[in-house]
Amino acid sequence: MTTITTSLPDELVQRLAEHAKTMGLPKNKLIEKALSLYLDHLKRAAYVKSYKTAADDEDILTLAEEGLQAYFNQLEDGTR
């Protein structure tokens, strides 16, 4: 495990200490969990952004429509 040193505003450290005490966790474990959740949130936000960008891209939309048509055709051929 790696050790890091950082500076945080006093008010944030106070809030951290209060929540850690309430939850019965060491502050470092609360920071670890919060950071992990936040990084997951950023990853999901980037994923959503990529879909929104793709929705405005005519080439991507054309490829998607062609792919759906090919899939539909396969379903049709398989049920006959």
From TrEMBL:
Signal peptide (UniProt feature, chain positions): none
Ranges in coiled-coil conformation: none
InterPro entries: Arc_rbn_hlx_hlx, Predicted_DNA_bind_prot_RHH, Ribbon_hlx_hlx
Protein name (Swiss-Prot/TrEMBL): Predicted DNA-binding protein ribbon-helix-helix domain-containing protein
Domain of life, per lineage: Bacteria
Gene3D superfamilies given in the database record: Met repressor-like (1.10.1220.10)
Organism: Indibacter alkaliphilus (strain CCUG 57479 / KCTC 22604 / LW1)
Gene Ontology terms: biological process: regulation of DNA-templated transcription
Predicted DNA-binding protein ribbon-helix-helix domain: residues covered: 4-40
High-level lineage: Bacteria, Pseudomonadati, Bacteroidota, Cytophagia, Cytophagales
